[in-house]
Amino acid sequence: MTDLVAATATQPATKGGVLSRAALLRAYEQSQDAILVTDRDNLIVAANGAFCQLSGYASDELLGKDPRVLASDNSTAEHYASIWNALATKDFWEGEIWDKNKNGERYNRWLKIAVLRDAEGQIENHVANFSEMEASKEYADRLAYLAYHDPLTNLPNRLAFESQLAQALRGCERDNRQLALMLIDLDNFKNINDTLGHHVGDELLQKVALRLRESVRSSDLVARIGGDEFVIVLPEIESPLTAARVANKVQQNMADSYRIADHALYATPSIGISLFPIDGSDANTLLRNADTAMYHAKDAGRNNHQFYTARMNEAAGERLHMENELRQAISAISPGDSEFSLHFQPQVQTATGQVFGLEALLRWNNPIFGQVSPMRFIAIAEETGLIQPLGDWVIWETCRLIRQMKQHGIEDIRIAINISAQQLRHENLLLLVRGALSCYDLRPEDIELEITESTAMQNPETTLSILDQLAAMGIVLAIDDFGTGYSSLAYLKHLPIQRLKLDRSFVKDIEIDANDAAICTATIALGHSLGLELVAEGVETEAQRAFLASLGCDTLQGYLYSKPMPFEETIAYLKAHQAARP
Ligand code: C2E
Ligand code: MG
Ligand code: MG
After folding, report:
1. Does residue 418's CB lie within 6 angstroms of at least one atom of ligand 1?
2. If phi over 0 gives left and psi between -120 and 50 gives alpha, with beta otherwise, what is residue 412?
3. Model pTM score
4. Is the CB of 362 inside a 6 Å radius of any atom of ligand 1?
5. Which domains, from first to last, does the chain contain?
């Protein structure tokens, strides 16, 4: 305290409105703000009562110490360097700081440091004033900004969107104008996030935000309201055609790839559009209807836009109805008597044309919905968690049927079972597989497990540990739908897999699309160089077979050989093929 007293003592005595030394001292001592004074060597020479209370130290415990004793490890060395730099050049610094008290508890304050110099310009003291964060205008501004903006993209957030939409709707109502609300969901984003990591996902979202902003006028609102969900509000449209034009422009702007961390990534939009006043007069209804339309855009093959129609709600109702039926069918599962069954599709050795394996594919025949495509009901089962019991049933049922095949004298046929991401999340899968194999007295070589590329990249640690244990049991593992995610072969080679199944979208146009042909050629060559066996899915024509054979693809599966068949038909097929063997 002495230096400060000495410094103030040299000030002229008070006259008129100037503070007296005693008043200055009182102000310092009684200040609500914590104040700390250091000398030119930055050693503490004074700490007022508020500071002692804040820090928990008595003032004589602080005197002569470096304020560094108060620092928490929350602030980096660069942060401190920038503070000293500002003090050296401007004699002043202010900003948020994290310190710790005597008990080691951290606290943050808005800190202002001023440098006091003598007549020669030499530093005499540093005076540090710690105020409550809320008291600072900068902090208040920052809080207000964060409350209404998404920190990643700097776009308005959901809260800002809701209030601006409500305001725009009031204006439209008053002036009898129409408004369009577009809900945009990125296709494939989850895949990118899961396979390439969140930092790549985050960068992609930032670039998408820029392209969206560039697609509209400055008076239109663009906001981010969820992970990969954005909205655009067009507050003044003459007719729905304007909204359609903007949607087309958004699609065009987003069609090009994004270059991030050496990857060329695509994030096309699925857009749902609702209009004020015909599709709703309040924000909630408009958003709900745009959401319904967006799901229709996804169902219609993604990368397109759909206007909401009342009929779509019937479809949403149907989806819920289907979920309920699925739930009931699963709870009523019993062996040999259920709405579910397995079909089997042969896998054929390219070189010999011999069947050596089958893929088990789940079928659902419901009294109300009839035969439902697995693409549809498995997506619902995955969204609702029902895939867990359903997937468990598939494993048991496959093993039961393999036992029956063996009773028909069919040996040495390996059956591949599709496993979904949720089944790989915990070790139950290991117990289940072991249990089913031993219950039906099967060998690990009798089954194979297929996981999709994006599944393989989720929760890499748990997944890897489970896959390692399955492989250690002697079970063959395959990557399904390879080429649809963004994993690299370099990563996949760390997984204990033996087979790669090339997605049928590449096989489909292999003879006409030079790109698809090049991808197949490269994948097969690279896969082989990593010691993997290559399987092509969806082989439908003789020309595709010949092309894949010329590339050395080991195994083929597709309608060219057979569609998936019910169990009895599969037995007949296998017997006929066994009989035909030389
Ligand atoms: P996937 O595992 O890639 O299965 C191959 C799909 O391609 C099957 O469709 C099959 O019928 C179809 N396919 C086979 N050859 C051809 C062909 O030459 N041309 C064409 N156009 N298609 C062909 P499916 O049976 O509709 O199954 C669709 C997807 O549903 C499967 O794709 C798989 O991801 C999933 N799935 C099926 N069964 C199960 C299951 O038990 N568990 C899980 N988790 N998913 C399953
Ligand atoms: Mg499969
Ligand atoms: Mg597949």
Report:
1. yes
2. left
3. 0.65
4. yes
5. 3-131 (3.30.450.20), 140-308 (3.30.70.270), 341-579 (3.20.20.450)
